[in-house]
Amino acid sequence: EPEVTQTPSHQVTQMGQEVILRCVPISNHLYFYWYRQILGQKVEFLVSFYNNEISEKSEIFDDQFSVERPDGSNFTLKIRSTKLEDSAMYFCASTTEVGGNEKLFFGSGTQLSVL
Amino acid sequence: GESVGLHLPTLSVQEGDNSIINCAYSNSASDYFIWYKQESGKGPQFIIDIRSNMDKRQGQRVTVLLNKTVKHLSLQIAATQPGDSAVYFCAAASPSSNTGKLIFGQGTTLQVKP
Question: What's the pLDDT score for residue B93?
Answer without folding.
Answer: 87
